[in-house]
Amino acid sequence: MSHERSIATVCLSGTLEDKVAAAAAAGFDGIEVFEPDLVASPWTPAELAARCADLGLTIDLYQPFRDLDSTDPDRFARNLRRLDRKLDVMAQLGTSTLLVCSSVAADAVDDRGRLAEQLAAAADRAAAHGLRIAYEALAWGRHVGTWERSWDAVRRADHPALGLCLDSFHVLSRAGDPAGFADIAPGKIFFLQLADAPHLQMDVLQWSRHHRLFPGQGAFDLPGFLARVLDAGYTGPLSLEVFNDVFRQADPARTAVDAMRSLLWLEDQVAGERPDLGLPARPAAPRLSGYSFVELAVDGVSGPRVGDVLARLGFTHAGQHRSKPVQLWVQGDAALLLNASVVRPAETGVAEVAALGLESEDPTGSALRATSLLAPVLPRTRGVAEADLSAVAAPDGTQLFFTRTVPDGWPADFLPTGATGDGGAGITRTDHVGLTQPFDSFDEATLFYREVLGLGPEEVTEIPAPFGLVRDRAVTNPERSVRLSLTAALLRRGEWSPGVPAPQHVAFGTEDIVTTARALRAAGAPLLEVPANYHDDLDARFDLDPVRLSTMRELGVFYDETADGAYLHLYTEVLGGRVFFEVVQRISGYDGYGAANAPVRMAAHRRARLATP
Amino acid sequence: MSHERSIATVCLSGTLEDKVAAAAAAGFDGIEVFEPDLVASPWTPAELAARCADLGLTIDLYQPFRDLDSTDPDRFARNLRRLDRKLDVMAQLGTSTLLVCSSVAADAVDDRGRLAEQLAAAADRAAAHGLRIAYEALAWGRHVGTWERSWDAVRRADHPALGLCLDSFHVLSRAGDPAGFADIAPGKIFFLQLADAPHLQMDVLQWSRHHRLFPGQGAFDLPGFLARVLDAGYTGPLSLEVFNDVFRQADPARTAVDAMRSLLWLEDQVAGERPDLGLPARPAAPRLSGYSFVELAVDGVSGPRVGDVLARLGFTHAGQHRSKPVQLWVQGDAALLLNASVVRPAETGVAEVAALGLESEDPTGSALRATSLLAPVLPRTRGVAEADLSAVAAPDGTQLFFTRTVPDGWPADFLPTGATGDGGAGITRTDHVGLTQPFDSFDEATLFYREVLGLGPEEVTEIPAPFGLVRDRAVTNPERSVRLSLTAALLRRGEWSPGVPAPQHVAFGTEDIVTTARALRAAGAPLLEVPANYHDDLDARFDLDPVRLSTMRELGVFYDETADGAYLHLYTEVLGGRVFFEVVQRISGYDGYGAANAPVRMAAHRRARLATP
């Protein structure tokens, strides 16, 4: 069966008016009304209900009601008075379910029988209004901190208007076991709140209030959790409740789309693992096998400069577009397009990654999947000869073209220049593309590539870069022929620091970096100078063969190693302000990107930039 | 005795070249060289040494050397080889002391005797170079996590080239007791690293690497810590080692000044509490008794608008500056200057807080103190009649004038308009000023007001505002006649959100907000509309007298209460894009600022802004 999709207003930034509009635009069926959002709104509850009805949204939950129970009879009486006021609001809202979370107050009831009595008394009030209460264990509740303890209270109260609210964060952050949901009496799960999170070693309240993520963005097993809840017979909405400092201040329209995509991802995962649960599912993402091209947007100033550098890197200007100022440069299986027809920002001389051509076993299927997952489809602005290129926009605006390269496909748009090159410098392929992300959309990007393109996310790491921490996460296909390195500056970076936005990069693979490096040096490629201290430190840290170390020092080659293998790499200077090239050799099973060397590279890029007028 | 003042390069953003320049410019005597900074630098160690000598900086420490000891003899041999390489670097640097921190590796030595042997072996290598090792317990060290354990190892090793490094973070984050420093053998504290931090419930490694602060900015008892270290006979540098995500990406020249100010604060505290230790000290900050004026920068568009609003708030345009377009508006003891002569940014129609007049018992002393604490002194751009106004710039650029108001002082610059007003609306004083801070300088601002002006910082709180979390910290004088509410958006806030930068505000006090509010409404003041839901929620939360609640609802008055008292307040709309007014009544000992109501106020301001073309 399919479930309604819902989102708590606290997930989104802005006023209640902004939030409701964003949720509706992203296709949600309902919302949870977070009380502070209503309190700050000029809409009366009835006006909010009418607005939601107009937008096709149901109001699935009113939340939260805090600190209901009390060991102090007077205070409990006051709490019931407060409850009555909120039940009045709910009646006007036309919503049936109130979230009551376990008390964190000093006067919270520890006695199980007394707690059940107080919950039943509250349920009586709700029932009198025709409403019901979903009781939730906060992970940091004073006496009720586990779902088992909340179920104990609900079971003892044994009131038809009292059930459970299960929240994946509160259960999984305490390593709770969803297998036990099978013991919950049928129909007693009144509501389900879904949130993912990264594994963090910190106070669980702070973790919950600042660092939750949408499903698929964190480290929790949300598919397993949801499957257990559905096994227990839950038929209500799948509702997101994510407190996150970044989403709190980001464009709510975007966040809502990200949120919806996370629910679709979750449904897809559960549908794939547990088809018996009958969740709607879409076909798996068509397999991506590699890069067909990487396209750089250039202009009349940056284009010739980048072309000159590509030539020195051993690339050949093999083709010229039939009708547009687009050059095709190739070496081995690596192909770059220099496109001077893209509308550029006001600055001149900029070069940046504008598009990726991704080789798909089913380009149309890839594009349809992206569309069904709310990726913006790009207008077909290309000429007829390119009619078969379907493209969508990634969260950072990079265009993604799904290709199936055949001779009369997109390469036919390019007239051969006749240039054959001199055999190149040993570059054989595109290894990875480094895309710098706006920090606001870093987690959105991870989920986008995961769900839309079927790329798997690696661990999140943080680089202590010279101009502030940089968050880093790669997404890859299983064969590692499509690798994207996503990075974002953790804070805004002061105006004084270089490269805002930080440059992107394209990394090319070679099987012999020494030979390639010598060829590049001989050709006068603008390679980045590596400080001598760096190789002195390599010498201290690793047992490197002295000749090999000496060669790396001579050629400006960086080095990293893990238990799996080694990584040798070098960089060009930044070109056109926004892009540089890397050449890499992977030895054995090295699967990373030399992140340990990134701070040295960044400092060197900064120096090169300062040295250039 | 006085101690050298030093700073670890890791405290500062940028390349090593940037960091050294910033440390020297702020007046530090020396630096700790953080190894990754050197590794990324094109300067050879000898070149760095020469550069530091040119700038008058000593190199006091090379750090860190990690994971020295090992249960695996081969690995320990490799670690000694690595040590030799680093000792070579130190010899070129001309620095005598290497920081070795306790191992976090799986092969770390647990056996106390064996650990002491390995440390002694390392000390032998250092001694052979004429160098020495300062051994530090990382709070998360595998076996050595307390200073007592590190002292045990050093004591057992009993090597003249081996001593302790004490780091206030590692000791105080684990609630270590500095009283025990008295047991450390004389001369065995080789180095002292100072860092403050907020109290956080999180993994201590993450706490240390991301959230350290300069002394005076956090919650640790740094003065007590330092006194104990000095009691133990330490004569070396007072050196700051602060890992902080914000400082990592902020202008290093500013951060270095902030850092120096923190050491001066620390010295002042210790000198005050323990004069016997002979630290240099400056006289205490002259007492501030209140606001003499608040000055708003306006222009030809915003000035008349703000003046009109002030008139409706019951202010009288009492004076006009003799030579400049500056108006003096007064009511009770509250005085506002509307200054149209300040050079404004390109936008027109802006009004913002430009300056505060702070009544000082010794204006010249206040200004001299500020100067000695590296506050930028502002050029005297005023006319001769204002010759006695000394001013400095706060970290957010607000001008602070130190005044001692007498009739022939600054008020004499203003010619009376003859207007006497109609008795006003009951406003009696300026209660507080709300200044929004750039997030990068939020902690700097706290320390600035604390050390330069002698204002005491309150707790840091976070407001879940509609457009992202807002950090909030007040600084006040003991009599509460000078209150500044400092706020900063935690993240950058999306472009879509309103009010970047967020508006500042000036809050005026009344003894009877109902009478004042009625007067303001009668005069047509542009008061902020408060949603009905807000007062409904007040009714649910508090046992308010129905008539009183009804009056608050009618007049748009917000309410907060604590155990100490109550706070009734109302707001105007935002004027000139950057400033609004608040009117407050404090009942009994209420000492806050109604932060719980801020989200409702912000949402209402946003709506009013959207409603205004």
Automatic annotation (TrEMBL), chains A, B:
Its EC number is 4.2.1.118. Keywords: Dioxygenase, Lyase, Metal-binding, Oxidoreductase, Pyruvate. Its cofactor is a divalent metal cation. The keyword Nucleotidyltransferase does not apply. One of its GO terms (biological process) is 3,4-dihydroxybenzoate biosynthetic process. Coiled coil: none annotated. Pathway: Aromatic compound metabolism; 3,4-dihydroxybenzoate biosynthesis. This is 3-dehydroshikimate dehydratase. It comes from Pseudonocardia cypriaca. The lineage of its organism: Bacteria, Bacillati, Actinomycetota, Actinomycetes, Pseudonocardiales.
